[in-house]
Amino acid sequence: MNSFFSNLWSANAELVITIVKIVLLLFIVLTVNAYLTWFERKVVAHIQSRWGPHRVGPHGLLQPLADGVKFLFKEDPTPAGVDKFVYYLAPLLALALALTGIALIPFGPDPIRLFNHDIYLGIAPPDVNIGILALFAITAMGVYGVTLAGWSSNNKYSLLGGLRSSAQMISYELALTMSVVGVLLMAGSFNLKKIIEAQAGPGVFGWHGIFSWNIWPQILGFFCFFVAAIAETNRAPFDLPEAESELVAGFHTEYASFKFAMFFIAEYTSMITVSCLCSIMFFGGWLSPFPASWRFAHYLPSAIFIPFGLWVIWDGIRYETIFGRIILPGLGTAFAALGAVFILLPGVNEFIQAPFWLLSKILFFLFVYVWMRGTLPRFRYDQLMAYGWKLLLPLSIVNVIVTSFVILAKMTWWGAK
Amino acid sequence: MTAPLVVFFVLAALAVIGALSLILQKHPIHSALSLIVVMIALAGLYLLLGAEFVAAVQIIVYGGAIMVLFVFVIMLLNAGVEEHTSISKMAGAPGLLLVVALAGLVAATIARSTDNIQTTSQTGNMSSTLGISNMIFKDFVYPFELTSFLILVAVLGATVLAQREKS
């Protein structure tokens, strides 16, 4: 019996590992999504001098749970006159495509060795040859969820939202794709791992760390990419497909309960994907911002847990509810202990370097997303079109041409590469 | 049956079913959706042949850009369910003949070249991005540039046609 199982394991190990990874990543991404809603509400609230959610759990930390339960138990009516098949397909399509995008993101360069198998962080191995192209392919398909939802709902506002969304996505996809060509030229590959490794330095003036990242030579490309990506994910200030002051709720007006939640999760997941892409292509991915010669910076990813944990304890003992006074110091102690353990185990400390830097960059971009939503007013429709076609597209083409000429000049006169 | 063969048959069946549904569906949007299924199945087949770049471009250009435009236009015109008229004899008879001829041609080609059909992935020139760019920008640079010139003319023509009403 034992040998039967070991045979079965050795034959299907890759498959089993991949399935376990998919389940784990799904769990993590959905949890992060839930807490992203909390994060967004908190940050926007503080931008507008409000408290945001703070009733359910200490600092409103259990609010996502309450929201999830609410989504599940709401009535889910199907409006009259909808195109049933497409109406049910649209949220599924939106969610499935958004989650597939995450599967292609590598979260670290080195595999963990478990059960005699190299297990990479992220579902696809980090060196998919067409990594970035495959991601763009999935993003390009993402528009169907919104468009079909708008069309199938049998509602004028939904239809207008769907139309706006497809027009917006067609317009901004050009700028999005053109703006990364500069990065691809510098890395010479579509492979996400190679794009990150090309940023390890030495960069301009032979510097390492933050100064060898693509953001400096490709700052124009980054600007175009980030703006176009915000428009692609239908987020403020480009959230015209769901402009509530004009279109009720746009394409998802007729969706309730969990079907609405699926659109919601899809939107937040594509925000995470875009943040991953920004970090990977322009901000060095999992590379540390400090040069490798700064030894103390090596302990930063572990050590940062300790002051954070201490701060949570300090905040928790003064919290107004009993529940908060128990749970927050407990959480803080856990964080501080985790940090101490990470520092004491050099292997773990080494291993969390790459994921730590990538995740903190992703968190930064998610913050920028929310920050923009709290700061900028929505574009008018003609402004949106003019901005995409007359500013972003020419700028990104200029970026491609200049980058090509600089690389050509380097190759001919300085003989680099 | 090996795993790639199973994947091939699944994708091929998907492509054929999608193509049939494209013709048989009554609503334009459903037809457009079927066409998207065909495009993605074809991309999967390219991937199976090891042509990763072509597969990705197939999805980005056909699945993403062109089909979004199709769906956009159908939605904008708010096209409803088609009315099916009885098939005219003028179109029916030559059409049937053409179907038989085409099927015969395909069958004959397959029957003649059973030994030479390559089902393995083609590594090298055709598949890699480097190989494709070498072919486009070195071997076939003049046809390629001529094609882009043609597209430019078409774009200019479309702009002129769109602007005509203003003047």
Give the strand order, joined by hyphens, for the main sheet of chain A: 1-2
State the end-to-end CA separation of chain A: 57 Å
How far is it from the N-terminal to the C-terminal residue of chain B, by CA?
66 Å
C-alpha geometry of chain B:
globular
Give the helix/strand class of chain B: mainly alpha
Element order, helices and strands of chain A?
A: HHHEEHHHHHHHHHHHH
Task: Give the topology string of chain B: H per helix, E per strand.
Answer: HHHHHH
Radius of gyration of chain B: 20 Å
Number of helices of chain A: 15
By DSSP (H or I, 4+ residues per run), the number of helices of chain B equals 6
Major sheet of chain A: 2 strands, antiparallel
Beta content of chain B comes to under 5%
Please name the defining characteristics of this protein.
heterodimer; A: 417 residues; mainly alpha; two-stranded antiparallel ribbon; 15 helices; 68% helix; globular; B: 167 residues; 76% helix
Structural description of this entry:
- The complex is a heterodimer of chains A (417) and B (167).
- By secondary structure, chain A is mainly α.
- Helix content of chain A is 68%, strand content 1%.
- Chain A is built from 15 helices and 2 strands.
- In chain A, α1 runs parallel beside α14, α10 crosses α14 and α12 (305-316) runs antiparallel to α13.
- The longest helix of chain A has 46 residues, at 2-47.
- Chain B is an all-alpha fold.
- Chain B has helices at 3-24, 28-48, 52-77, 89-112, 129-139, 141-163.
- The A-B interface holds A 83, 85-86, 129-130, 133-134, 136-137, 139-141, 143-144, 147-148, 150-151, 159, 162-163, 166-167, 169-170, 173, 177, 190 and B 27, 29-30, 33, 36, 43, 52-53, 55-57, 59-60, 63-65, 68-69, 71-72, 75-76, 78, 129.
